[in-house]
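Late entry, written up from scratch paper. The run itself happened at the end of the previous shift, but nothing got recorded in the book at the time, so transcribing now.
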Amino acid sequence: MSSTPNTPKGFLPRESTPEKLLFYPKTVALVDITYYFINHYLDVKDRTRDQMLQAARSAKQNIIEGAADGLTSSKMELSLTNCAKGSLRELQGDYEDYLRTRNLAFWGKNHPRTPALSLFCRNIRKPEDYTLLISKMNDEELANMSLTLIHQSVALIRNYIAMLEQRFLKHGGISENMSRARRDNLNIHSN
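Output as recorded:
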């Protein structure tokens, strides 16, 4: 339905889907990788298992909920997206702890494998492409791939939050848009 000059514009933004966000597939891959990782490299009695899986899952689920809630609440979308970032930081700490406590290498900026891994994680967007690889990697490789995905996801989320802030400043929130649409509707029908 097209808008004519005598038809008020709607006040709801278009519904967002998490699949359109570049960081969402990375969080799905992190859930899969973390599930594999904890079941292959952590003792069944290790409490970190549940914490790592919950952090990965929480990041993914908060992105889904934030995208859905963003339809009616900019505040909730910002809050949930920021919670997703916090969950990723928690997961980052667990992977870093794993590497440190087992004297395994953390592939920082100067590690020879970092550029290829960063490029791979930047270019691969389908979670199932990661799933094909995880059984071929050892714990050090998986932990470093997870850390790379986390760093990239956090950077993308930071940019997305900045975009949400600018969108709010430019267009306002749902309450403002509802009031504006109501006034426009009254003005159209009174003419």
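The helical segments are 23-41, 48-69, 74-101, 114-123, 127-134, 139-171, 174-190.
(Scratch paper discarded after transcription.)
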